[in-house]
User: Which sequence fits this backbone?
């Protein structure tokens, strides 16, 4: 039996990566042990969650003002809200968190909303993220529901060698998603530690030979190729490779576009040090408090931007062009 216990807002403060985009914090309307709610892929933890017969799930408040108070203490930058659970019909925690995030003036990523409880469309301020969890038809229906509401939506796909990163699988998945209004599919590298591999096998326990492949695979060599296969297939399907970075009403549009460009450069950076620098530069832009397009027009951008010349040049391109 799944037991929901009402509690305070659960907000995980600290940078997290969502499909190649940087977020400042994650709001969990249903926190605690969510594994009892069915099989789903968590694209931030990068691991599959498994169903349990019994679990206790913390349900957040259903009042927007309570979430607003928690959000006010989070550093500047986009927010991730989710996932949503079936209990939303009774609890209302997801919609309250999502609407409070939207009212904060920040960009908002909505992770796995239930179609019936999608919040009001806030245009470029919200991007809908659906994590692929095994049921491609249900995923297509969710994407279509968000598209019908005018919300920009796409899919976070775990790039699993020998499964979701196979060309045949992708040929069956991507065209129906595109037809449903999907605009992008971001490849997410799954975790491959012992527990993550155990969960992968549990998700596909009936697949012949999958146990041996998962546990004996050279993941360090296979994962980069799996990501390349998915990204090629996504491009061939005419889909984007990144979620659009949402821009809240309180954010200068140029700032969001410059941060977006740096995040995308980080995805193809040659080493972890370069990735960290690009993400740090995006964080600086989010937290600067300046309209950087105006700063650039005044000729002062390089004077205030504390990063290397090549990173500054990338940010300037986005600021001067008006889009990333």
Assistant:
């Amino acid at each position: 039996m799944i037991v929901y216990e009402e509690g305070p807002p659960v907000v995980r403060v600290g940078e997290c990566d969502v499909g190649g985009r940087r977020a400042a914090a994650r709001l969990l309307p249903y926190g605690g042990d969510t594994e009892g709610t069915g099989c789903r892929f968590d694209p931030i933890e990068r691991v599959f969650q498994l169903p349990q017969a019994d679990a206790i799930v913390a349900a957040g408040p259903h009042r927007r003002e309570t979430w607003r108070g928690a959000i006010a203490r989070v550093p500047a930058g986009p927010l991730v809200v989710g996932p949503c659970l079936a209990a939303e019909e009774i609890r209302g925690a997801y919609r309250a968190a999502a609407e409070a995030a939207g009212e904060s003036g920040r960009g908002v990523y909505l992770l796995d909303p239930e179609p019936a409880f999608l919040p009001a469309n806030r245009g470029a301020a919200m991007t809908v993220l659906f994590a692929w969890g095994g049921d491609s038809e249900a995923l297509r229906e969710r994407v279509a529901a968000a598209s019908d509401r005018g919300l920009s939506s796409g899919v976070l796909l775990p790039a699993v060698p020998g499964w979701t990163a196979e060309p045949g699988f992708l040929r069956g998945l991507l065209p129906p998603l595109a037809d449903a209004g999907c605009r992008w599919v971001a490849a997410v590298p799954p975790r491959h530690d012992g527990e993550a591999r155990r969960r992968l096998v549990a998700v596909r326990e009936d697949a012949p030979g999958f146990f041996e492949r998962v546990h004996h695979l050279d993941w360090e060599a296979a994962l980069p190729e799996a990501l390349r296969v998915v990204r090629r297939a996504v491009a061939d399907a005419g889909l984007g490779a990144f979620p659009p970075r949402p821009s809240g009403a309180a954010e200068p549009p140029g700032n969001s576009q410059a941060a977006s460009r740096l995040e995308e450069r980080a995805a193809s950076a040659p080493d972890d040090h370069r990735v960290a620098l690009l993400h740090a530069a995006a964080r600086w832009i989010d937290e600067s408090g300046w309209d950087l397009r105006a700063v650039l027009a005044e000729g002062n951008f390089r004077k205030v931007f504390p990063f290397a010349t090549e990173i500054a040049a990338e940010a300037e391109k986005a600021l001067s062009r008006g889009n990333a």
The two ends are 48 Å apart (CA to CA). The chain has 13 helices and twelve strands.
